[in-house]
Design goal:
The chain has 258 residues and is an alpha/beta fold. The chain contains nine helices and twelve strands. It has helices spanning 45-52, 75-81, 98-102, 116-129, 147-159, 177-192, 204-210, 233-242, 250-253; strands at 7-16, 19-29, 34-38, 60-65, 68-69, 83-86, 109-110, 113-114, 165-169, 196-200, 213-218, 221-227. The strands form three sheets. A six-stranded mixed sheet has the order 6-9-10-3-11-12, with helices on both faces. It has a four-stranded antiparallel sheet with strand order 2-1-4-5, covered by helices on one side. It has a two-stranded antiparallel ribbon with strand order 7-8. Helix 5 (147-159) runs parallel beside helix 6. The radius of gyration is 19 Å and the shape is globular. This is Sugar ABC transporter ATP-binding protein. Keywords: ATP-binding, Nucleotide-binding.
Length: 258
């Protein structure tokens, strides 16, 4: 883990009309780690992720990427930094195959025609680099894939573009036990390969299985950010539901313990 976080947010505020969704939020994510972002429904997780991805601008606050302040006003600008977000709906096209999905909107061309051979090779290399063995052919249509395989393709699509930070929104939602285990193994492998991974999940078993740190949002505020090994399930549940647990809480951590 590097001393400088890949992503650091300081004092982030965001309102929609009269409703303030984020209040002075702080957040950090380091390379080589999985940082879980947890909170109850309405805690502000989705809004924070959309701000990270350039969909919503901050009202105020600092966005630091690899230690330098940046301005992110669009998903294209976020992608240029190396930020890729895999949303819960995956944004895959069932009628296209794996290669076509992974390069959708970023197709490689040779003159006026698509360079199918290069795209197929890059897709296969990316899946192999992630040790994905459940996909038999990169020319399979996405409609023929299982839920776990679809999640795998969406994650591979995100890391294909030399990304540095990958945000995964509920990657194991609606998956069976075996598929969940495969996806969690892939999530852990991303961090072990040096990427910065942010995992959003309601499943605390998944969070404790793969994360290095846990950041908790409560009613739009950072309740705490702690090392996973330093807290229990019960403490995280208290932070999610009440905004504090014993010594852990905004009054003592200022939203970001180390």
């Amino acid at each position: 883990m590097t001393a400088t976080p890949t992503l650091e947010l300081r004092g982030v505020d965001k309102s929609f009309g009269p409703v303030q969704v984020l209040h002075d939020v702080g957040f950090r994510a380091h390379a080589g780690e999985v940082t879980a972002l947890v909170g109850d429904n309405g805690a502000g997780k989705s809004t924070l992720v959309k701000c990270i991805g350039g969909i919503h601008p901050f009202d105020s606050g600092d966005y630091l990427f690899e230690g330098r302040p940046v301005q992110v006003h669009s998903p294209r600008e976020a992608a240029a930094l190396g930020v890729e977000i895999v949303y819960q709906d995956l944004a895959l096209c069932d009628n296209l195959d794996i290669v076509q999905n992974m390069f959708l909107g970023r197709e490689r061309r040779s003159g006026l025609i698509l360079d199918e051979a290069t795209m197929e090779e890059m897709a296969a290399e990316t899946l192999a680099g992630l040790s994905v063995r459940t996909v038999t052919s990169v020319r399979q249509r996405v409609s023929s894939l299982s839920g776990g395989q679809r999640q795998t393709v969406a994650i591979a699509k995100a890391v294909l573009w030399n990304s540095k930070l990958v945000v995964l929104d509920e990657p194991t939602a609606a998956l069976g036990v075996a598929q969940t285990a495969q996806v969690l193994e892939l999530v852990r492998r991303l961090a072990d390969n040096g990427l910065t991974v942010v995992l959003i999940s309601h499943n605390l078993n998944d969070v404790f299985a793969v994360s290095d740190r846990i950041a908790v949002l409560h009613l739009g505020r950072t309740a705490a950010q702690v090392r996973t090994g330093d807290v229990t399930h019960a403490q995280v549940v208290e932070l999610i539901t009440a905004g504090r647990s014993g010594d852990l809480g905004p009054a003592t951590t200022n939203g970001a313990t180390t």
